[in-house]
Amino acid sequence: MSALSLLFFFKFLFFAPAAAPKDDVPASIYDFKVEALDGGTIDFARYKGKKILIVNTASKCGYTPQYAALEKVYEKYKGKLVIVGFPANNFGAQEPGSNKEIASFCTKNYGVSFPMAAKISVKGEDVAPIYRWLTENKYNKFKSTTVKWNFQKYLINEKGQLIAEFDSNITPDSPEVTAAIEK
Fold this sequence. Notes:
By secondary structure, the protein is α+β, with helices and mostly antiparallel strands. The protein is 30% helix and 16% strand. The chain contains six helices and six strands.
């Protein structure tokens, strides 16, 4: 082997580009399995054929009373819609509690019976894969968004397609959300 060949071999061996990291975002919402607030698992495949409303939540926010409206919407559309709450501490440190504390707060103050995921990050470098799917067009094939505050809502249709996004100030029982659920 010539010196030049050895040089190229060692250059390739030691300076070859690293393989790109494997993307941790599934192609379909139904491929997600996330940790539940109670330590179990929320398997989105169970929700095929139903609409899914995903909401990032917080216990110490001006929008926290929306838990009551979320519960009413969940009860009204049970069988057609599932709501999944994702506690997050990304905005103003308004969700400082542990999963156990959050579960207790939701049950005691709002009677929450819809599925609640374990606390995650919904933006930034440590954003959870499900929120990458919700906020990036390359995954959701609907549009790219930014989670601006607590209680932002994402509606997925019965086929697993993201069809609407609602800002925090739009309540779960608003005419806009109701129309999108009933469509």
